Amino acid sequence: MPATVICGLQWGDEGKGKATDLLSADVSAVVRYQGGDNAGHTVVVGDEVFKLHLVPSGVLHEHITPIVGPGVVVNPRTLLTEMQMLNERGIATAKLRVSNAAHVIMPYHVALDAAREGAAADSGAAIGTTRRGIGPAYGDRAWRSGIRMGDLLEPDLLRSRLAAAVAEKNALLASYGAATFALDDLLALALDWGRQLAWAITDTTALVQGSLARGEHVLFEGAQGTMLDLDHGTYPYVTSSNPIAGGACTGGGIGPLQVDQVLGIMKAYSTRVGAGPLPTELKDAVGEHLTEKGHEYGTTTGRRRRSGWLDFVPLRYAVQVNSVNTLMLNKIDILSGLPQVKVCTGYRVDGMLVDSWPLNVAQLERAEPVYETLEGWSEDLSACRSVADLPAAARRYVAAIEERAGAPIDVISVGPERNQTLMVNSGSVLGARRRAGAAA
Ligand code: GDP
Ligand code: IMO
Ligand code: MG
Question: What confidence score (pLDDT) does residue 315 get?
Answer without folding.
Answer: 98
